[in-house]
Amino acid sequence: MTDDSLTRLLAMLDDLDADVDATIDLADEVATHGGPELRPRLEAELSRAVTERNGYARELLGGVLAGVAGPAVLPVLVRASAVDLGDDQDGLATEIVDLVQADPAAARTLLQPLTHDDDLTVAHRADWALRFAP
After folding, report:
1. d(CA 38, CA 22)
2. Is 19 inside a domain boundary?
3. Could you name the domain of life of the organism this protein comes from (predicted)?
């Protein structure tokens, strides 16, 4: 997977007239076939989506990031989900739960420190996520 697909996805997320189904299909493709080299760019774009209060982009990019990097990105996803954008976050919550359940030991290692974060919203969100570890 090259940066070309990710670049196309990001352009679609910025285009209010982009076809939603095509955008979701491309996000799924990048999540399935993308490699770890995409992680830094995805993390930066997820941060931008949160800063710009774009819940749609946060949901899709969170899923792509989870697919590309696995449980290692749990702290990034939890921090992104701790920001209230007024959306239901169903997709992002599902990604977090799936990653926690896929590797409970890694999830505990990565999320336990966040339960003591200075940002209480992050701490509560990390605690919530850890409840799904078997």
Report:
1. 20
2. no
3. Bacteria
91 occurs within a structural domain: yes
The H or E element spanning position 126 is helix 120-130
Q: How many domains does the chain have?
A: 1
Backbone region of residue 77 per phi and psi (left: phi > 0; alpha: psi in -120 to 50; beta: other values): alpha
Question: Domain containing 94: what range?
Answer: 39-130
Backbone angles phi, psi at 3, to 5 degrees: -65, -15
Does 10 fall in a domain?
Answer: no
pLDDT digits (tens, 9 = 90+) for 83-132: 999 998 899 999 999 999 999 999 999 999 999 999 999 999 999 999 99
| pTM check: above 0.85 | yes
